[in-house]
Structures are given as structure tokens and as C-alpha cells.
Amino acid sequence: MSVTAALPVDLARIEAAAVRLAGRARRTPLLNAPGLDRIAGRQVLVKAECLQHTGSFKYRGAWAALSALPADIRGVIACSSGNHAQAVARAARQSGRHALIVMPQDAPRIKIAHTRAHGAEIVFHDRATQDRDALAASLAQERGWALIPPFDHADVIAGQGSVGLEIAAQAQALGVDEAQVLVCCGGGGLASGIALALAAHAPGMRVHTVEPEGFDDVAQSLAQGRIVRLPQRTGFCDAIVTPAPGNMTWPILRAHCGPGLAVSDAQVLAAMALAFEHLKLVVEPGGAVALAAALFHGDRIATETVIVTASGGNVDRAVFARALREGAPDADCGA
Amino acid sequence: MSVTAALPVDLARIEAAAVRLAGRARRTPLLNAPGLDRIAGRQVLVKAECLQHTGSFKYRGAWAALSALPADIRGVIACSSGNHAQAVARAARQSGRHALIVMPQDAPRIKIAHTRAHGAEIVFHDRATQDRDALAASLAQERGWALIPPFDHADVIAGQGSVGLEIAAQAQALGVDEAQVLVCCGGGGLASGIALALAAHAPGMRVHTVEPEGFDDVAQSLAQGRIVRLPQRTGFCDAIVTPAPGNMTWPILRAHCGPGLAVSDAQVLAAMALAFEHLKLVVEPGGAVALAAALFHGDRIATETVIVTASGGNVDRAVFARALREGAPDADCGA
User: What is the pTM of this model?
Assistant: First the structure.
């Protein structure tokens, strides 16, 4: 497709990021369990990025971006509800830089605590009244530090793309060449990075974005062939409630992904409980949407194998306890 | 040490088991997190066997034993409170054999359900009034099937020893040659297998068994230099409450392991909560005792790095919810 040549990130950038990430990011396992296969009615392979450093795939993009910065940039600034924040904080400390994170006041406590534990300075903003991007931009100018956006950045996308390189290799080692690949999607950094990697290394695999119902701006954008912007608001799947695909991720998503899927909060809770039970993984709501789609939207899947990202595990105890109470309550009664 | 030559399992048997397990058992990751290192005051590396097939290391020993049986043995019988049962059931199905599991009536529901899901027939016994070993032996004779003991069996020990081969290789890849290796211990199959593998492949590492307080028959045996038998009763760490080390594991434990450690139920709950938070792993009580010792018994550890097994993740939802409520309640407040 001639459009590929014009995309803002290419395979060479992903492979270069993978080289910088080697020995630093974890090569996370691709897991499966007979109990999940039974529910889904097909083989389900789960890329366990909740086991990545800082508890989400975001560490890949953060390190890919920071390791490409000029050495004289002494600090970095990021806006994030949490996972990107922790990732940037850790990558900054590892590269000997300061990190300043602009974070909403209502971010989960565990994410605030872990970001602080990685040594970052935090500036809180009010989601309702403050423009976090403007705040971050002015702080960046003031200090002469680099802004590291959560998805609209070529090296961030390239870093997330390393997940796709691993999926291709790990699936092929299991004899799987053909699969729909369901990817948890906020701004589209992970989905677009994986899609680019798979287009080159596993042409029999296609990425479908998965979002929470009511926050499916990417699915709507893919359906309409143009960026659809939804009202900004908060939701249960806090890590992935973005209003629109990014300017840089959108052309990649349009070229390589879709149609997009959407799942309910009840399905997300069930997927979290089933990941607890069958995979022994802690998955956060935003990281469980793809597994939820694989388990409960089988009518949208045509391949014998479905691959899903479990993209993060940073969840407050109370939310996880709710998933244990409410999610798939009959699941541990056998079958 | 001349005693080594007389041990009931040797390195060749472990390496042969590892060959049979290659491509079948998962090579589980060796994980770490800065938050755990801070609590422990040293580097903590966690061998995540809760991610093994059937949710515990027991699958290794089960497959190692079943794959060594004569082809004309059509079925296998095991006594188990759960993890060994699931492991034998899955290995039996994979090798085209029947499985019959003798299980206590009060085993966790999730373990009963998962054992049935793997296709096994279950015969329940009453812990208080029935001798499960006699029951299993008479069933084995009746049917002409093979008994697969949970730890006192050379190929079972050899299969668990493959964990030790992986620990040696994975730690050395991180530059770690010297460490105390804390192993969750019931009858001693995992601890003795790992100890034999490390004695050959990582002589700077020594295994210390970890048991629940009040169930530390192995620690007492090691301290006294003879098998100490404690009263049989149930406990919170259901997977590892055995009354005494095995006849086959004991000489290996005595030659290579100790001193043994013991932890409280409160420490186990805290370790489960901290594994949830920092590693995104679901660890069951009996699988969390080694991590608990690493975090809360630092005075018993002399090395800069401590390696622990997280040996299983088959835990009922209610028990895990209790760990989230009660375990290390201040842990997510930063630092």
C-alpha cells in the first residue's frame, strides 16, 4: 500500500527502538490457559505487558524516547493519568535525568505513589478547569526540558512497536501465523506500533483496537475514515479514556487497523477476574478490555487464534477486589 | 561431599527431565521491582512459577514423571490438596492417560474445579478419618495404574529441579552468582530439586526452605539433623502443610539446604498484597512464604541478592480479597 511509505513511523525506527530496549525492557511472556480458550471458543494468547517494568507497556515507549534524546537535555516532562508517568519517571532516573509529571488530582493512589517512588516531581492539575497540555508546555519552556507525549511521538510509538515484534516471534514459535490481534487502545500508540511491526513481520495478523463503550473514539474514527472527537470525561478504564486518536497515530491506525471493538465495564470486570483465575495475572481495567473482547465478542473474531494485549496492571486494591466480587461470578465452578 | 554420590536423584536425571520439559513447561520469568528491593533492603528476584501451566511448579514434576512412564500404563493416581492434582490431571490428558485424584473434601473450590476441568476423576477423602495414601494405593492396585506421589519420587524431584537450572541461568544473565535462594517448602520436592541443580550450576547459591510458622517440620529436621514429624493438621498455607520431609527429599535437603525459615500468616498476607502491587502477580498463601521471608526476615539473609520462588497462584477469590484488605495496608502510600 503506497500510504505506508508516508506514515510518520517506519519499521526501521521500531527495530532501532527494539535494539535500545534489548536487555532493558522485559520480553514479556505470551500466556494461555485452557479455561480461557473454552470461554472464547478459540485459542487465546495473552501478551502479558502488565509484567513489564512499571507495570505497563508504557515503559517501552518511555525508554525508547529518552534513550534517543540529546545528552544535554537534563529533564523531561510528561502528562499522564499514571502509567506513562511511572514509565517516564523510571526511564528518566535510569538515564540520569529529572522527571516532572503533570497528573490529574483524581489519578489512582497507587499510580501517584509509584510515580513518586520512581523519583519524579508531580504537579497536579484539575481535569475540569485546567488545560494540562498548556501547563506542561509552559513548564517545559521554563526549564528547558523535553516534553514526552504519551502517544503522539515517533520514538514512543516505535518503542510500543517492540511489543509487535515480540508477538510476531512468539506466536510464530507456537505455529501461529494468522490471528486477529486485539489491542487495548487509548490514544493509539500501542495499537499503531504493534500494527506497523506485524505488517512487516506477520502479515497474516491484523490489529483491532479495543476501547470501553462510550469511549470508542478510535473505533468510530476507523468506521468513518476521519478523526472523531468525543467529549473528554473520566471512566472506569482510566488508563485509556482519551477523546480522539492522535495526529501521529491516526494515519497508522487508518492504514493498518480495524474495525475497532468496544466492551462494557461489566465485561472488563469479568476479564479481570478470569485473568486472576486462569493466568494468575493482575490486570487493570484499561489493560483488560482486549481480553474482554476476546472472551465476550467472539462473533467479531474470525480466526482460530486471537491474540490480546494485557497492557497494564496498575490497579487500586479496591477496584481489584470489586472485580473479584462482581466479575464472572460463576467462573470458578468448573467447566 | 561424599554424601552427594549416594543421593536418590542426580544432576543427570534433572537434566534429562529438563529435556523432556523443553517446549512443554513454561520457562517462567525471574522478576524484580524497586519497591520490593526497598522493603527487603537488597535485590529480590522472584521466580514466577505461579505463571507455570496449571498455576504452579507442580506441572514440571508431573510431566517429568508421566513422560518417563512405560507406554502401557493407562492411568495415574495422585493424592493432593490441589496443585499436584491439577498438574497430574493436565499431564495425564496430554499423555493420553486417565487421571484419578484423591483429594480432601475441604480443598479450595478453585483447585477442585480446575482439576475437574482438566478431565480428572476425583475421589474425596476425609482428612480426619481416612488414610489417603492407603486409599490411593488400593485404587492403584485395583486399576493397574501408576501412583504419582507429590514429592517422594525421583522423576518428580528431577522435574522440579528444572526450576533450579533456570534460576541459575537467569540469575547469571543478570550478573548474580551469589545468593540465598528461598524456596516454599511442603514435602521438599521443589527445594531438593532446586538445591541439586544449583549445587552443580551455581555453587555460590544455597537453598533455604521456607514454611509457615507451626508447620516448619523441615526447618526443625534440618536443625536437629533427623526427620522431625509434626502433627498433621490444616493451615492457611494449604498447599504446603505437610507433617514431615519425605524419605527421598530428606537426604537431599540435609546435604544441600538450610537453615530453614518460617513466616507468620500475617507476613504471608502482606507478601501476597505486595506481589499484587509490585509484580502484578497472583500468588497463593503457600506460594508466598518465600517472598514473605525475603521481605520480613532480612536478618536471616546475608547476601546482596535474595532469590525466591513464587511457587503457585491457585487461590480462592475470598482469600485473595483478604490479602488485599489486610496485607501490608500502608504499602501503596509511596516510599
Answer: 0.95
Residues B309 and B188 in one domain: yes
Q: Which of B230, B210, B232 is nearest to B219 (CA)?
A: B210
Q: Collapsing DSSP states into helix, strand and coil, what is residue A232?
A: coil
Task: Give me the residue label for grid cell 502477580.
Answer: B281
Which residues have C-beta within 8 Å of that of residue B96, sequence separation ≥ 6? none
Residue A323 has pLDDT above 90, yes or no: yes
Same-domain status, A180 and A260: yes
Backbone angles phi, psi at B140, to 5 degrees: -65, -40
B118 touches chain A (CB under 8 A): yes
Same domain, A265 and A240: yes
Q: How far is the alpha carbon of A310 from chain B, nearest alpha carbon, in Å?
A: 11
pLDDT, tens digit (0-9, with 9 covering 90-100), for B160-207: 999 999 999 999 999 999 999 999 999 999 999 999 999 999 999 999
B279 with A51: Cβ contact below 8 A: yes
> With an 8 Å Cβ cutoff, is B173 touching chain A?
no
A114 to chain B, any CB pair closer than 8 A? The answer is: yes
State the ipTM, two decimals.
0.95
User: In this structure, are B38 and B74 located in the same domain?
Assistant: no
Domain CATH number, residue B6 = 3.40.50.1100
The answer to whether residue B335 neighbours chain A at the CB level (below 8 Å) is yes
Convert A109-143 to b/e letters by CB count within 10 Å (16 or more is b). Answer: ebbbbbbbbbebeeeebeeeeeebeeebeebbeee
A173 and chain B in contact, CB less than 8 A: no
Contacts of B277 in chain A (CB under 8 A): 110, 317
Chain B closest CA to A123's CA: distance in Å? Answer: 16
From B102-116, B194-208, B253-267, the region with the lowest mean pLDDT: B102-116
Same domain, B52 and B63: no
User: Can you give the pLDDT at residue A5?
Assistant: 54
For chain B, percent of residues with pLDDT exceeding 90: 86
Q: How many CB atoms within 10 Å of residue A305?
A: 22
Residue A49: closest CA among chain B residues belongs to which residue? B280
pLDDT of residue A331: 59
Q: Where among A118, A147, A176 does a domain terminate? A: A147
Instruction: Give the model's pLDDT for residue A212.
Output: 97
A-to-B residue pairs, Cβ atoms closer than 8 angstroms: 95
Indicate whether A310 pLDDT > 90: yes
Mutate to test the interface with B, among A28, A269, A277 (most CBs of B within 10 A): A277
Is the domain of B15 the same as that of B62?
no
Q: Residue A211, SS3?
A: strand
Range of the domain at A81: 58-147
Give the nearest partner residue to A31 out of B51, B276, B335, using CB atoms. Answer: B51
**Among A108, A127, A147, residue at a domain's last position:** A147
pLDDT higher than threshold 60 for residue B2: no
Work out the percent of chain A whose per-residue pLDDT is above 70. Answer: 97
Instruction: Kindly state whether B313 is in contact with chain A, defined as any CB-CB distance less than 8 angstroms.
Output: yes
How many domains in chain B?
Answer: 2
Q: What is the edge-to-edge ordering of all strands in the sheet holding B30-31?
A: B30-31, B43-48, B305-310, B179-184, B205-212, B261-263
Using a CB–CB cutoff of 8 Å, tell me whether A31 touches chain B: yes
List all residues 6 or more positions away from A37 whose beta carbon is below 8 Å from its beta carbon: A43, A44
Q: Which residues does chain B have within 8 Å of residue A321's beta carbon, measured at their own beta carbons?
A: 321, 324-325
> Does B163 lie in the same domain as B42?
yes
Residues A139 and A171 reside in one and the same domain:
no
A285 touches chain B (CB under 8 A): no
Closest Cα in chain B to A275: B282
* Sheet of A121-125, strands arranged across: A121-125, A98-104, A75-79, A146-147
